[in-house]
Amino acid sequence: MSDFVVSSLKYRPSNFENVVGQEHVTKTLKNSILDKKIPSAILFCGPRGVGKTSCARIFAREINDFNSTDDLSFNIFELDAASNNKVEDIRDLIDKVRIPPQSGKYKVYIIDEVHMLSKNAENAFLKTLEEPPPYIVFILATTEKNKILPTILSRCQIYNFNRISENEIFENLKLICNKEEVTFEDEALNIIAKKSDGSLRDSLTILDRVISFTNKKISLKETSAILNVLDDETYIEIVDNTINGFLVKVITIFNELSDKGFDEKEFMIGLANHFRNLLIVKSSSYENLISNKSSLELVKKQADKISKSEIVNTISKIEYSIFKYSEIENKKLLVEILLMKISSIKDEYSGNETSEIEKKKSELKKPDQNKEITNSFEKKESPKIEKDFKENEIELKSKEEEVEVEVEVDTNKVNTDISAFSLSSLKVKKKVNDEIKKIEDSKEKENQDLDLNNLKEKWNLYSNELEKKGKGNFSSLLTLNEPTIEDKTKIVYNVPTKSSKKELIEIKEDLSRFLKSSLKNDYLVLKFEVNNEVNKEFFLTPKEKYEKLKEINPTIEKLKTDLKLDF
Fold this sequence. Notes:
alpha/beta, single chain, 3-stranded mixed sheet, Helicase, Ruva Protein, domain 3, Zinc Finger, Delta Prime, domain 3, 5-stranded parallel sheet
């Protein structure tokens, strides 16, 4: 048989001094042994691979004054709660607890993954845990403290183990590589430390795999390939292209990475971490917060090209995409859309960033909600509706052209070739907005009297079009009630709940613009109000519908209970 022993076992700590990254725990345990204050029940909780079981074994051996060569089989017992989680298993344990140790001072029971015990088993364990014989010590270990009964937690001294920092893992890996006579690059060990996610055991397992793959010559390139982890230089290249607006190049780089098998979620997490580094290097003291020093200069140089607010905004977009990752079937498309969102706006042919003036003109040229509805109603059977829409379209187009002409005249006075990130471009944007507002204010406003029947007709028209566009939620809310007219220009629409009002706020601007144009009144005001009477008549949520059905037919409750149905 082979004499090979995996590193996670070979380098498992044999004393408290060798435990990495848990000084707050080991110091307390050592002091309790020196003061001879041994608790009857201890709970070690924390993430995987940070030293919980190792500390439990060391503590059990120390309180018995055993050496590493002594036979521990009659004093230290390890149980796996995942496979011994029944009441019968705990009763058997309680019977064994009554027998005193044959050697040493204490019998120590180490129960791993204690949160896996059934509730009945935990309740059966309570009395013995609180008042065990004086020679018994229980050491419980778990990764999920929140799943343990509070009555058990109150009977234990609780020690919280921390995730081990990347620097501590890196130094430990470096020490092991030197002992094993393995040549390595620091950047490669940094990648292993990152990939282990604060778990020393995971880092040693990964190290064994990388050593086998590289034949004891660990390089950055091969480590990145085997672990599907991107180095900082790749992220720097990607972000440079997003800042410069070269979207096609960004998508091409990502597709090449995806074809090589890189995980989309890991890519987004790494991208968010890179933007985090960009934000950190903008502060005065960042040395201790950046783990990879080799690419620090490149990161600092790139950070000068982007503002703090843009970095924070980009991180928010990445975070949202990571949150939506599990809900989207096409993961690759999700990342591509994210890259489109975070890339700057550029001219497709010249590569120059579009100026704020051009952006404003582009926005003016976009058809509004009313115009879109007009195009979709070109062949409706109602001649009157079709005529109204065409008249509105001509009027809106005329207004847009006049506004655009005014903007073009004023832009001759400024330099349009300005960076989107400069102060001058912001001034230009403000000036354009002011000019547009002046032009709109100078237009002669229409003030045709509102007719309730005409309002209802336009209202239903807008609602039906939303339904056809797949926005049934908005359409349903707009048909719950009928709009009313107050004070000649105020349109009031009652909704049943605050959540309904919040949803309709999203389309309020488009609906107002449509009504102003089609009713020929620029002074009208649209207001949504919550009305409790409406709430009594309509039932929007599954629970509300169920309560109404139960009121009509009480036997539905029995049907739900018998068949174990949800709403």
